[in-house]
Amino acid sequence: EKGGFEHFMLKEIFEQPRSIADSMRGRVRAEEEHLQLGGLRDYLGQLAASERVVIVGCGTSWHAGLVAEYIFEELARIPVEVEYASEFRYRNPIIKERDVVIAISQSGETADTLAAIELAKSKGATIFGVCNVVGSSIARTAHAGAYTHAGPEIGVASTKAFTAQVTVLTLMALSAAQQKGTISNTVFRQLLAELERIPALVEKVLRDAQKVKEIAYIFTYARNFIYLGRGLNFPVALEGALKLKEISYIHAEGYPAAEMKHGPIALIDEDMPVVVIATKDSSYEKVVSNIQEIKARKGRVIAVVTEGDSHIREMVDFVIEIPNVHEMLMPLISVIPLQLLSYYIAVMRGRNVDQPRNLAKSVTVE
Ligand code: M6R
């Protein structure tokens, strides 16, 4: 059942070329400039006309929401707020009838997320669900939605569900942008074409898994880790840190790279590994300066870079190269080496990767 893999988590990481493709199947045909999410059809106008989108979720699903925030705001020009479901529901949130709430949940059973959407629904908001489990409670409670077609996810650490969520949310943002007219035909076409290339690019990153394993070996006994990224790679940094914490039990924190100088940089010394996502995008130069700040304090830097980047290679301890893609889609690629890094470190530490201590696959308690 693990398809020849040692753990479900590794199998699920390697399934991503397929699960991402499945989440686009029948929805995207770049050649014909076709994009349609069946489950949104009757509600697309409402999404495009919404004054505000509130995204709720927990854990990894919340991270997918943070990625979606950048994409929705950039492409569809709709203000987005991303909330932890557990915070949202307990503080008498301001919800108006023209608000759209998007609930993200792999299991569709997370108690706090379910309660958050019931609250928003009672205040008149329209609810969209982005769930992986068909017929789950959240999917049934939502007015409309789009399933992620990741297939069953068994490992407690969410991997293929995350990339499927980001894929579907990107399609939602693109649909809203097209409906609103906030995206040019050229960019629309380009993004659809790039989306279709994603499965092959993920495949390419997976072919370099051995390289990540070698780095994991070196850092197996680290006691702490910091993950940094900017822009769309900031939520990826949070996700990388969460993956490491939950399956290896190493303390890890994710930060927006520029926040370092506001406190966390005090933690940097020769014992602190820092994973920096430093792909060639609009914040590249800024991230390069952040790397310099860390190296000046003797931190050990593992940089995830765009292939062919020789500049960063000279500055850091280790590089992991990933293929280039449109900035909006980069999280789908940049998260892959971080999933692998946490997996290999956890295995080398002898952890129960698929069922880490104290955790359940779906959190149905409040
Ligand atoms: O099923 P959900 O997406 O609602 O679950 C949310 C979180 O419990 C989940 O993402 C959790 O953080 C994962 N174990 C992270 O890998």
TrEMBL record:
<comment type="subunit">
    <text>Homodimer.</text>
</comment>
<feature type="domain" description="SIS">
    <location>
        <begin position="43"/>
        <end position="182"/>
    </location>
</feature>
<dbReference type="GO" id="GO:0004360">
    <property type="term" value="F:glutamine-fructose-6-phosphate transaminase (isomerizing) activity"/>
</dbReference>
<keyword id="KW-0315">Glutamine amidotransferase</keyword>
<comment type="function">
    <text>Catalyzes the first step in hexosamine metabolism, converting fructose-6P into glucosamine-6P using glutamine as a nitrogen source.</text>
</comment>
<keyword id="KW-0032">Aminotransferase</keyword>
<keyword id="KW-0808">Transferase</keyword>
<protein>
    <recommendedName>
        <fullName>Glutamine--fructose-6-phosphate aminotransferase [isomerizing]</fullName>
        <ecNumber>2.6.1.16</ecNumber>
    </recommendedName>
</protein>
<feature type="domain" description="SIS">
    <location>
        <begin position="215"/>
        <end position="356"/>
    </location>
</feature>
<feature type="active site" description="For Fru-6P isomerization activity">
    <location>
        <position position="361"/>
    </location>
</feature>
<keyword id="KW-0677">Repeat</keyword>
<keyword id="KW-0963">Cytoplasm</keyword>
